[in-house]
Prior knowledge:
Elements: H1 22-31, E1 40-44, H2 51-64, E2 67-73, H3 82-97, E3 101-108, E4 116-122, H4 125-134, H5 139-156, E5 161-167, H6 182-195, E6 200-206, H7 210-217, H8 221-224, E7 225-229, H9 235-247, H10 258-268, H11 272-291, H12 300-316, H13 321-331, H14 342-352, H15 359-371, E8 375-377, E9 383-385, H16 390-396
Helix pairs in contact: 3-5, 3-6, 4-5, 5-6, 9-10, 10-11, 11-12, 13-16
Amino acid sequence: MTFANPYRPGAGHPPPYLAGRGREQDKFRKMLEQEVILTNLVLTGLRGVGKTVLLETFKPLAQGSGWGWAGTEFLESTSMTEAALATRILTDLSVVTASVVVGHREVAKIGFNPQTVKKDRRLDYELLRSIYAQTPGLVDDKLKHVLETAWSVLKQAGLRGLIFAYDEAQNIADHASKEEYPLSQLLTVFQSIQRKQVPFMLVLTGLPTLFPKLVEARTFAERMFHVMSLERLNDVDSREAILRPIQDQKDCPVTFSEAGVRKIVEVSAGYPYFIQFVCREAFDVVISQSERGKRPHVPIEEIVRKLDTDFFAGRWSRATDRQRELLQVIAGLEHRDGEFTVQEIVERSRKLLAKAFSSSHAHQMLSALGEAGLVYKNRHGKYAFAVPLLGAFIHRQGQEP
């Protein structure tokens, strides 16, 4: 009998068992009880912590409570203009509104005898775009009018409200040099329509840089959002994520020993993506060994080496040689998996490097590494790795200065 591997380490793929996120789901359910939208949601955390997966579980919760759901993933910020954002919102809105009939129109039939038939007129993208184009004013004015018009229709159709959910939202940004302010526009439009009691809620998912960026764009964003920060799983929830997929599979021949489970928890550090990655590789190895009559043994070191190649190596390759030296200095700090300061980097580099980093140089390099998605700066002026366990990866390369 063939047993399918239940573990799914792909980006955004739902795991066979979602462990440790019940509290976040309960909080979202409470937010769905809002009659007037006073609080929107920012879902944030490091890569591999399960933001996209959790966002996908919110969708059926919303729909089951009578809410509509629209949204997608924001592309890189360099391609986002105010007009592009308006198109994005109209496109996503039309997915929900296109089934709603708002009237009828006469359509001529082809033939010798001129005849007309009535066809339903729906609030599809074409009609939304027409309303947008005919509304006077700036892009903000046009968007507000379209959203208010859409709600007047959706309300009659029985919807309780509409969620606009956007993943990778750290990618949207204002560009003063180009006089384009799509992020400010997004916040201003939704704050305005929510004040008019239009129940359209924003749910934005992204890296820890997201919320500071929102506040920088519009100071009122601090009062507009609840921030839900996803952390790695604790040991109990990590065990559940490891064991439940094979326990729930009838007659599954794969089992993990207590020592094996502890080792997977240790190697993954409780990050859901790493748990799925290690378990998927371990499952395949155990099945293969069993089929050949060998005693099952999970080669953890080899799996970690594969994880290095598949997950970390591509990110590491983005850094220049000098940037790698700085990352190696950080990886040598005792609290490398937590927060660190420029001063700590400067002091340690003086001990380890022939050419130490100055404070200004470290600031510049951290900014560049932030743009590359390797580190981020929090609201208190401290830095942290944006990629979980990156410091441990650097140590495994034997590249600490």
